[in-house]
Amino acid sequence: MPRYFGLTHHRHGDPAAAGVLLVNLGTPDAPTPRAVRRYLAEFLGDPRVVELPRWLWRIILHGYVLRVRPARSAALYQRIWTPEGSPLATGTDALAQRVQAALRAQRPGPILVRHAMRYGRPALRAALRDFAAAGVRRLIVLPLFPQYSATTTASVFDAVAREFAGWRWPPELRLVNDYHAEPLYVEALARSVEAHWQRHGRAQRLLLSFHGIPERNLHRGDPYYCQCQATARRLRERLGLEESALLVTFQSRVGRAKWLQPYTDLTLADLPAEGIKHVQVLCPGFAVDCLETLEEIAIGNHARFLHAGGERFEYIPALGAGDDHVAALTDLVLRHGQGWSEFDPGWDAARAQAQQAAARARHERIRDARR
Hints:
alpha/beta; four-stranded parallel β-sheet; 12 helices
């Protein structure tokens, strides 16, 4: 068996293309305990996600977490599942299709856009090999995590590196580290808030809820907390809000370790006692709506706020496949693709085909001469 992955049908001079891979976190295939268990085993088994000694974490993971959590999580997934499937899966697919269309409208060259999940399906490995079969020789990997964290973005980079370590001929590669301060990303967030205000009016507080990570990660050099604050500051300035009108909190904590604070759930439970009866919540770190936004925020924390005495709670949806988000990601991709022929506005299909035909002819002459 060959040691390295390669395309046995490759011919020199075959058409080449550039690829753009949008990578999201992942989702179970179905809202069932079995499917959730399989997904959680892959997700929580990643050492980037849980930084504990492997032997200790395996005991906890297989001895307790994967016995108890799948049924609980499956019940939560059932609350947000749609006839089309997982909102994260369908939303990420729609986003990739719209970015593909936007790039085709702006660049004549062969640029293919696909999406993958770091955990679950469509698998990152399968997406990369599909690119190889399509002749992709230059690749941009864009993790859909605006704020960098070792628990998310770095895990994507790990998986890409592991896959390419087994390839005979990896493509030229560019990795997008983060886009937390990109003007068009901030503008997309601002416009989503303003559109919500036009329909529903302004709340007493705009609360930005980012996914949490253990606080120790911050002290070990993870820039995630600082990038969340930077996004919030730029959004507040763009919206013209006073500092007190916008709150930054962190959600989805698990375990007993101290996570980034303030916590979203505790903050929402405390606000009514402070006279804040109307809040609007935006989750800028989630490119597409998912369990953490639709169930944890829009359902669970909504109920928590009202139970504590709040009167109005509104969740502002993730950017998803909206026009402003597509424009922001397309601009990001175009800038990262600069210098590659496929991203050249003047790319000439006829000239490229002629060059490929000439290369094939040279290869065939050399091959025939050796026979």
